[in-house]
Amino acid sequence: MTRRRLRPFAATMAVALSLACLVSTPTVASAVLSPPSSISPAGYDSYDQQQAFDRQGDALFTWVREDHTYPRYRYVQIKSRSYRGTWGTTTTVSPYGQDPRAPKVALDDDGDAIVVWHAYDGVDYHAYARRVSRYGTPGPLVELSAPGLTVHGTNVAIDPDGDAVITWIEWDEDVAVRPMMRRYSSSGSLAPAVVLASTPAHAETPAVAYDREGDAVLAWANDNVVQARTLSADGTLGELRTVSAPLSPIDRHFTAKVTVDRDGDALVTWRHWTAADQSDQIWGRWLSREGTVGEVRQLTPSAHTDPVNYSVAGDLDGDMLLTWDLFGTGHLYSVTISRTKAVGEPVLLSSFGRMHSVRLDDDGDGIVVWQGQGIDGSVSSIAARRVNQSGTFGATEVVVPNGTTPTVAVTPGGRAAVAWQRRFQVDLQVQASVDPYVTGQTTRS
Question: pTM value?
Answer without folding.
Answer: 0.90
